[in-house]
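User: Show me an example of a complex going from sequences to structure tokens.

Assistant: Sure. Here are the input components:
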Amino acid sequence: MDHDEPDHDDTGVRDPSVRNPSPAAVPDTALPIETMWEVFGRRRINDALEHVGQIHAGDRDTALLLARETHFRHEEAVDYAVVRSDQLHRLEDPSLLERRVDIDYRLQRGYSGFRDKRARAREAAARRGADDLQTRPAPGRDVASEAS
Amino acid sequence: MAGLIPSRDQLDARTAEFVDHIHAGGKVEATDWMPETYRRLNLKFIEMHANSEIMGALPEREWISRAPSLRRKRSLAAKVQDEVGHGQLIYRVAESLGKPRSQMYADLVAGRGRFHNVFHYPTHSWGDVACIGFLVDGAAIVTQRALTDTSYAPYLRVMRRVVAEESLHYRHGEDILLALASGTDEQFAMLQEAVNRWWTPILHFFGTDTAREDDPSIFWGIKPRTNEESRQEWMTTYIPKLWDVGISLPDPTLDWDPETKVWNYAEPDWQELADLVKGDPSEATATRLAWKQRLARDNDWIREVVLGEPAPVLAA
């Protein structure tokens, strides 16, 4: 930790009065407020930094890690940040969002060639003598394009 | 259920104004005032959704080690991570309605949490993975896409994220299904058997045919469409894709009526659904819950590290 952690003493143990704030300060339904972080993401470089959700974490580094694993696994952002209470912590190492290995299996473009794959499955069906099934009436609908 | 749909003259002025607001397409933020029935129904619905994401990851997780290639293994592991991630996002929304996350998780692990019927079944073969990825996820896409217009704004925002990822899962599932459909006779038979197994659970998934005016979830603006509308949309989207590659469905009466534009199908046994979700846990669920209990114990230290505080007690 290279920044002040006012809620922790030298041993890393929190001041109990902070961990268990008075009921008036925190709704009794939530985890302790000091473990709550707001997560912000910027989709493209010209976009505004947008709030995408919240996470719970005990410290800044874990909050940044959990924010990445929870919200930004699929190239949803070029930059992100978390803020605890009135603090705002920005990502210090943008390379964390860079691709270090092939992750096509996490991306739409990793799944392609469906026209050919479907044609092969149709041919296989014809070989099995399933032609009668193909003639049954059904409403047409291009789902693949809707899903993308 | 009638008590959950109040008549107009039963409502106080504030509640009547709230109902008018959501019926006009208005949204509700976590910090807005809301009637207790709205809060309670939304919490029940969203908690069940979050539970389903977690329990839904388990049947597929069982196949990561048995996936037929490295590419399928990575693809499936990534999808399982996505589903668990959806659970985390949705628990966060449920938490905003007043139930602590630790309590929801404790309830789920102890077997008290409810989740969707399709995740109570065992998986027998790689054909089941194709069915879960393409047909079950397809059913989830249909219902979740409808939820991108739900009245509770925090849920709506999360569902937009989730639906974007589900379209990737759709392709993952279709890829597996088409590979089996164009494979050997044995591979095709494996797929056909699995489709036969999943047909009734998927019809059950959408729920009974409840009229719009009798469905509290519709009255309170949680979901915009009836169970039958969602089931019909799923049929329109997916049945032609199965027939197209020679897969048959185990219902000889199944037919599309071009006049009325509805699918006719044999009514599934609804008692089977009631027994499954309300009775003793199925064998598959008991096994998976035992795993969850063991993982909850073994992984307490991770929770401690992440939250920087003692882990919640998971009382049975």
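The lines above are the inputs; the final block is the predicted structure for all two components together. Confidence is low (pLDDT under 50) at residues 1-27, 141-148 of chain A.
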